[in-house]
């Protein structure tokens, strides 16, 4: 059965009913993106749906700022035990939103 764009971005209505394996083979940001293979790289700093690095991901990074042994310690590979400027730099490098807005926000945040 043919699906519209919304249906093609829906795990429950399209893929689950057709036996797609979302535990080991596929991943999807339900309702916002098309399925991707598990092995496809994820941008550093993309912590949650939808795909891409944006202010939603930043809020997660900020909540863990300078705390130890948390899930968003991504740099160096495997982490170094703390969420710090190395992680922020990787996050900023992969930013996919408005750069002027990000620059203004980051400048204000760093000047505190």
What is the alpha-carbon Rg in Å? 17 Å
Q: Helix proportion of residues, in percent?
A: 25-40%
If strands are numbered along the chain, what order do they take across the biggest sheet? 1-2
Residue share in β-strands: under 5%
Which structural class matches the secondary elements? mainly alpha
Which descriptor suits the 3D outline? elongated
**Element-level helix/strand string:** HHEEHHH
The number of distinct β-strands equals 2
Name the average pLDDT.
Answer: 77
Main pleated-sheet profile: 2 strands, antiparallel
Assembly category: single chain
Low-confidence stretches: none
* Distance between the amino and carboxyl termini: 55 Å
Number of helices: 5
Tell me the count of domains: 2
Overview of the molecule:
Helix content is about 35%, strand content about 5%. A two-stranded antiparallel sheet has the order 1-2. It is elongated. It has helices at about 5-10, 10-15, 55-65, 85-95, 100-110; strands at about 25, 35. It has two domains: about 5-35, no CATH class; about 55-110, no CATH class. The mean pLDDT is about 75. A hairpin with an 8-residue loop joins strand 1 and strand 2 (about 35). With about 110 residues, it is mainly α. The longest helix has 12 residues, at about 100-110.
